[in-house]
Specification:
This is Glycosyltransferase. With about 270 residues, the protein is of the alpha/beta class. The chain has one domain: Spore Coat Polysaccharide Biosynthesis Protein SpsA, Chain A (Alpha-Beta Complex), CATH 3.90.550. It is about 25% helix and about 30% strand. It contains eight helices and twelve strands. Strands 1, 2, 3, 4, 5, 6, 7, 8, 11 and 12 form a ten-stranded mixed β-sheet that branches. A two-stranded antiparallel ribbon has the order 9-10.
Amino acid sequence: MNYEIDYEAWSAPKTFGFSGCFRLRNESQFMEAAIRSHLPWLDEAVLVVQPSKDDTTERAYRMAGEDRRIKVHEYPFECDWIDTPGFYAKDPDAPGHMVHMSNWAFTKCRYSWIVKVEGDVIATSTFADIVERVQAQPDKYIYYGRVVLNMAGEMCDMVSWDNPRNGGWDEAVVPNNPAYHFKRQDKWEVLQNPGEGISMGWSGLHMKRCKRGKTDGWNGETYIPFTREGVRSALAHFNRHKMSYPAADDPLGAECIYEGNWIEWYLKNLSA
């Protein structure tokens, strides 16, 4: 297969709709919950699967067989993670680099908007706020960043005290145009944003700290109970000691965070 990126084809006009773009590598633990939680708002879910040591690939194909909207594309190169020697040394525009993989993944998206989401981020019902905003101005060139809460603990019942949420930019909904493409910037893989950027509300739960091997305090972080009071205190502590992120902290304004819908789904399927 040719893994070169055809930028001219990428820039062709596309039908209005939402393509979920999930880059998957060793994501077996949470990928199904992440994908299924986003599906109500997607016209397609593009699963770009990298070589994995777990059953990520098998799960991806099984899900595709159950829902026509799910498309699987295998990227056969094992990319170097950010801030590793290979990430710096290799050509970011060549097959096998994480930057190339991310741009290649975007070219597989057929609709006019891309929901960029990792395989361990579970959507909450307030994701609809961003979708409705896009639907109201479908031709507006805006980068919609997403705020997600950093869940923690083996039973998914904790939240990070030190880093309770992201900055509202890494997970995003963006126009499907090559002007929005990834570049290597310092030690990061950065999605270039030439237009207006808005960091919107609370729309997801990041499960990285619930993964096997990270449940006891990833990077030395402290975890506290996942309750309204716990989230409120963690956010207050975070904003006192670090630079405030652009989106407002409103943990009680998004009651879906406490619905437990996809957390309950996961807990019921721990042995699956």
